[in-house]
Amino acid sequence: MNTTRCVLIVDDETAVREMIVLALEMAGYETLEAADGNQALRMLTTHQPDLMLLDWMMPGASGLEVARKVRNNPDHQGVPIVMLTAKEDEDAKITGLSVADDFITKPFSPRELVARLKAILRRTTPKGIDEPVEFSGLRLDPISQKATIQDAPLALSPLEFRLLQTFMTHPNRAFSRAQLLDRVWGGDVYVEDRTVDVHIRRLRKAIGSHHEALIETVRGTGYRFSPNEK
């Protein structure tokens, strides 16, 4: 399975790219390299990687800017993004997670990198029912990995899609933040509870003001999807 997976590595440091390429190719992945954000965006016009490994601090377009452009591109918004960063403060983490699926703090070991990317790629295809599910004009199709409102496509990251799928396949069930972290992010990845709140805000914004009330905040517990129709 890994031999068919391709990772686009975007970092301005040649030595870092070479180390990552070696680690990933030894683990069976195909790799593409870009030395800056603009080169990465050009490569995306002709390539469709399974994952982007994106350095935050680069000359020219920063990793954060590149991630935002990818998320706003209908052709590539579903590509998982992992940010590489030397930033460790909480605000930076929250900012990074607003556009990326995960981040890895420098310095890191090749083994840690491979393990984290494997975890992300395992979660790229959500587990669950295969039949489309629809409430109040909001429709989610697990097979095509697409979500729409009144037939208009929604721009969702892979994490947001899995979060919405969890809600829509369990209507009226209250989930704690810990339960959502386990179901959506996976039990083998450590992220803070606040991460859930960040992605809930993004999901509500994505589905629009008319539908954001479908995702209710349950005081003292977490969140619940309460459709207007069943």
What report would you give on this structure?
The chain has 2 domains: 121 residues, Rossmann fold, CATH 3.40.50; 93 residues, Arc Repressor Mutant, subunit A. Helix content is 37%, strand content 21%. The chain has 8 helices and 12 strands. The strands form 3 sheets. A 5-stranded parallel beta sheet has the order 2-1-3-4-5, with helices on both faces. The protein is globular and about 50 Å long. The model has no long low-confidence stretch (mean pLDDT 83).
Summarize the entry for a quick read.
This protein has eight helices and twelve strands. One of its GO terms (cellular component) is protein-DNA complex.
What's the order of the H and E elements? Answer: EHEHEHEHEHEEEEHEHHEE
Rounded average pLDDT: 83
Low-pLDDT runs: none
CATH topology of the largest domain: Rossmann fold
Class computed from helices, strands and strand pairing: alpha/beta
Describe the biggest sheet?
Answer: 5 strands, parallel
Please write out the topology.
Blueprint: E1 6-10, H1 14-26, E2 30-34, H2 37-43, E3 51-55, H3 63-71, E4 81-85, H4 90-97, E5 102-105, H5 110-122, E6 133-135, E7 138-141, E8 146-149, E9 152-153, H6 158-168, E10 174-176, H7 177-185, H8 194-207, E11 215-218, E12 222-225
Parallel strand pairs: 1-2, 1-3, 3-4, 4-5
Antiparallel strand pairs: 6-7, 7-8, 8-9, 10-12, 11-12
List keywords for this structure.
alpha/beta, Rossmann fold, 2 domains, Arc Repressor Mutant, subunit A, 12 strands, 5-stranded parallel beta sheet, 230 residues
